[in-house]
């Protein structure tokens, strides 16, 4: 089975991490896998299995790669193309419309597009939505990473239910548990007894780390604690300024992108999700894999689904710094939930890969 996965880059984002995991596990299952990138860049490149063929279209913008993509698909003749993120989904759908490819096309949606469009009222965003609404029906299947993304696709793009299938992201595995056991020599893990809060995500507006920092300022007036944020992105300098202005530079650490986030999670106490919206949130599931106590904003999308409306963690329903801080402080003294790992296993790599392979098989039989 020849599978081509199509994504802009392998920068530090959730979809990029998922496609790295899909590529490696498809090749483990005996598939012939090609990873097509608009630009060969990003930290996840080093994590791609050597058996996966990586093809760089070497374009500065996604839409500049349309003709290279068409030529490549004609030459490679894959059985399936799986794409991710808006631009690549639009390109793959457009090419499917104008060129009679034999490859089956699966689009994957990793965010709630209604939230994206509400936050961006630009002409570009308007055109992207129109293109998605017109082109997505030409795909053989659209994969939603959560039930709310599923409903969002129906509501925003008017796709029929039969066109969409929910497949959760591949997150939990025994491998990440082993990586969590690797020693981490960061000084806070060695020399401090204070509770450690941790959050993970790309440093951009949707992750709302400004809210988390404001909340932690309130926490720091009540208890002695530390906060670690893993991730890189365009808001790094802005967040550093905020931290310094609040006088929190000694107790908040922006660690950047790390190859192994798991031995940071395994040494922390409470995971905090501060996002405005999420498709699913791999980081939340990863934290639950290590039985961390969970505090989350009531962000639209997958986290409420993962936490089952608060069964597996605390949810700040008004998303204010005061409410989030209150739950963070309460979480420190709360007993550890040793069952969080049971919920995390629901989002396992094996389950996800099996569902994808079953989907490919069913499409092949049509």
Walkthrough of the structure:
There is one protein chain. By secondary structure, the protein is an alpha/beta fold. The chain is 43% helix and 18% strand. The protein has 16 helices and 15 strands. The strands form three sheets. It has a seven-stranded parallel beta sheet with strand order 3-2-1-4-5-6-7, sandwiched between helices. The protein has a six-stranded parallel beta sheet with strand order 10-9-8-11-13-15, sandwiched between helices. Helix 3 (86-98) crosses helix 5 and helix 9 packs across helix 14. The longest helix has 16 residues, at 349-364. It is globular. The mean pLDDT is 95.
Task: Give the helices and strands, then pairings.
Blueprint: E1 2-7, H1 14-28, E2 32-37, E3 53-56, H2 66-76, E4 80-84, H3 86-98, E5 104-109, H4 113-119, H5 123-135, E6 141-144, H6 147-157, E7 164-166, H7 174-180, H8 187-191, E8 196-200, H9 209-222, E9 226-230, H10 236-245, E10 252-256, H11 262-265, E11 270-273, E12 277-278, H12 282-289, E13 293-297, E14 300-301, H13 302-307, E15 314-316, H14 321-333, H15 340-344, H16 349-364
Parallel strand pairs: 1-2, 1-4, 2-3, 4-5, 5-6, 6-7, 8-9, 8-11, 9-10, 11-13, 12-14, 13-15
List keywords for this structure.
globular, alpha/beta, 16 helices, 15 strands, 7-stranded parallel sheet, 6-stranded parallel sheet, 366 residues
Strand percentage = 15-25%
Shape: globular
- Helix vs. strand class: alpha/beta
Rg from Cα: 21 Å
* Strand order of the biggest β-sheet: 3-2-1-4-5-6-7
């Amino acid at each position: 089975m020849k599978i081509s996965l199509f994504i802009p880059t392998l920068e530090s984002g959730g979809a990029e991490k998922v496609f790295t995991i899909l590529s490696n596990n498809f090749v483990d299952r005996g598939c012939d896998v090609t990873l097509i990138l608009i630009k060969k860049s990003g930290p996840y490149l080093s994590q791609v299995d050597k058996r996966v063929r990586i093809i760089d279209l070497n374009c500065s913008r996604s839409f500049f790669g349309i003709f290279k993509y068409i030529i490549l698909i004609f030459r490679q003749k894959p059985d399936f193309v799986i794409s991710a993120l808006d631009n690549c989904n639009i390109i793959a759908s457009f090419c499917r419309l104008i060129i009679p490819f034999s490859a089956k096309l699966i689009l994957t949606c990793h965010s709630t597009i209604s939230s994206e469009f509400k936050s961006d009222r630009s002409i570009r965003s308007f055109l992207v939505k129109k293109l998605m609404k017109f082109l997505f029906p030409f795909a053989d299947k659209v994969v939603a990473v959560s039930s709310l993304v599923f409903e969002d696709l129906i509501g925003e793009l008017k796709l029929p239910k039969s066109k969409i299938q929910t497949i959760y992201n591949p997150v939990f595995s025994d491998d990440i548990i082993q990586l969590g056991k690797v020693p981490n020599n960061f000084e806070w893990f060695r020399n401090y007894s204070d509770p450690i809060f941790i959050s993970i995500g790309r440093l951009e507006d949707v992750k709302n780390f400004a809210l988390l920092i404001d909340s932690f300022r309130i926490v720091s007036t009540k208890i002695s604690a530390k906060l670690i944020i893993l991730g890189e992105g365009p808001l790094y300098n802005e967040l550093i300024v905020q931290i310094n202005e609040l006088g929190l530079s000694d107790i908040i650490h922006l660690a950047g992108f790390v190859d192994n986030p798991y031995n940071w999670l395994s040494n922390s106490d409470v995971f905090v999700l501060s996002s405005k919206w999420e498709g699913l949130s791999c980081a939340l599931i990863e934290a639950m894999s290590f039985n961390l106590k969970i505090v989350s904003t009531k962000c639209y999308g997958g986290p409420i689904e993962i936490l089952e409306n608060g069964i597996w963690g605390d949810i700040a329903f008004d998303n204010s710094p005061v409410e989030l801080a209150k739950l963070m402080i309460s979480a420190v003294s709360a007993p550890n939930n040793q069952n969080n790992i049971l919920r995390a296993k629901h989002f396992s790599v094996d389950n996800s890969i099996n569902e994808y392979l079953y989907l490919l098989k069913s499409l092949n039989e049509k």
